[in-house]
Each structure stands twice: as C-alpha cells, then as structure tokens.
Amino acid sequence: MLTEKIAVQFQELLDFFRVEENRILLAKGIRFRQFEYLKFISITENCTSSIIAEKFNIKKPTATIAINELISAGLLTKTQNKKDKRFFHLRVTRKGRNLIAKIDKERENLMFRILSNFSQKDLKLFSWALNKILTEIEILN
Fold first, then answer.
1. How far apart are CA 75 and CA 52, in angstroms?
2. What is the model's pTM?
3. What are the angstrom distances between the C-alpha of 43 and each of 5, 69, 100, 129, 131?
4. Contact at 8 Å (CB) between 44 and 89?
5. How far apart are CA 122 and CA 126, in angstroms?
6. CB neighbours (10 Å) of residue 74?
7. CA-CA distance, 56 to 50, in Å (whole number)?
8. Residue 56 class from Cβ within 10 Å (0-12 exposed, 13-18 middle, 19+ buried)?
C-alpha cells in the first residue's frame, strides 16, 4: 500500500536528519536537548529554569542541571531577578548566539546539498507536500 511505503520513507528521512543533526551538534560540543534549550532561551524574554521545565515537560532539577552545563560552557548567563531574588533570568551569551548561528547554517547547508539536484518542478511539488504535511500537523495539535 502506498501509504505504508510513504510512512517507511518518511521514517527513513527522519532517521537521516536525526543522525545528521546529532553529528553536527556533537561536532560543536553540544547535545540535542541542550541545543533545544539554548534556542528556546534565545527567543524567550525573561526565561527562567521554571519556564524551561514547563516548556520541555521536565522536572526543575533536571532543567537546572542542563542550564548549569550551558552556563559552564559559556553559552548562557543567569541574572538574579531584581524584584524576586528567588528567580534568575537566563540569557544567551555572544558565544551561545554564535554557536546557534553556526549550527543553523550547517543545518541549512545540509538541506541545500540535498535539494541542489532537484528541478524547479520537483522543488515546487516538494514544497507543496511539506505545506500539506505542516497543515495536517497544525490540525492534529
């Protein structure tokens, strides 16, 4: 059945990207989950460990450990909240922003290498299919 074949191919595609992404991240000295946290913090104003724990459905001590690793690596800083001294706001450092930019560029280059042999017609069809998939994902969520 065609649907089953597509499901297998889609899984192969996901597996390929997972392996390649891990290769890119590990070459830069960061794990996938750490990179997710770093990216999220980079776009979240006044981010705290509690926000990280809630967003990623992890326990606060787990978030704190991950955050401390990123701070030790020089990718994050934490600043005590002036109004409530119990909380710390997290910010991505210049080193962290540079790392995000480098990794994003490598991911983009990977996509360009894959798509470079596609014709314009194939690219349009692929874009249409991706949009259809993304629409279905939105409906599911």
1. 16
2. 0.84
3. 38, 19, 12, 28, 24
4. no
5. 6
6. 12
7. 10
8. middle
For residues 52 and 41, the answer to whether their CB atoms sit within 8 Å is yes
What amino acid occupies position 122? D
Contacts of 110 (CB under 8 A, 6+ apart): 20, 24
Whole-number Å distance between alpha carbons of 54 and 93: 23
Give 22-48 as a 3 state SS string: HHHHHHCCCCHHHHHHHHHHHHCCCEC
Domain 2-140 has CATH 1.10.10.10: yes
Q: Which two tokens stand for residue 81?
A: 């909240």
Query: Are 87 and 81 contacting, i.e. CB atoms less than 8 angstroms apart?
Result: yes
The 10s digit of each residue's pLDDT in 36-69 is 999 999 999 999 999 999 999 999 999 999 999 9
Residue type, 63: A
